[in-house]
Amino acid sequence: MLVIIGFVLMILGVFGSFMPVLPGPSLSWIGLALLYFTSAVPVNYWILGITFLITVVISILDYVIPAKGTKKFGGSSYGIWGTNIGLIVGIFAPIPFGFIIGPFLGAFIGELLYDYKDHRRALKAATGSFMGFLASSFMKFVICMMFLGLFLWIVWNNKSELF
Fold first, then answer.
1. For a FRET experiment, which of 45, 56, 103, 128 has its CA 20 to 30 Å from that of 85?
2. What is residue 67's three-state secondary structure?
3. Rounded to whole angstroms, how far apart are CA atoms 112 and 120?
4. What confidence tens digit (pLDDT) does each residue in 9-45 have?
5. Residues 6 or more apart from 27 whose CB is under 8 A from it?
6. Which of 108, 128, 127 is nearest to 118 (CA)?
């Protein structure tokens, strides 16, 4: 049962790497940890510790990278706040791809509030926000796929004890 629940969490983690509603790397790590709670798999604290540390770092970077992208492309603190607010609104907005459109529009509107005359700078900051979001999502996806591969490798090596 723990293997099945762990596998479901691994798959949800992969989807969560693109959907901000689901904490992708965290779900994947919990799925990996559940595998070690079975009596068939010997506990490896090194793997659990290293993957936990990676999960914490990626989770922190997930919030930092879009804001840094906005700042790198010339955005102000208004744009950074707009990015974060737009992400939250975009998650709950009933529009397709709201979690992608939200940070972009949030940064754009935030920059327009800062300086409503400079539309070009606002668009550049919003582009930085979008690039940061894409980089963050790609990074989470890679980590979740690595965790899934590790999960499958551990299951394969212990299949005689698990099944």
1. 56
2. helix
3. 10
4. 999 999 888 776 788 999 999 999 998 888 888 888 8
5. 9, 10, 12, 13, 16
6. 108
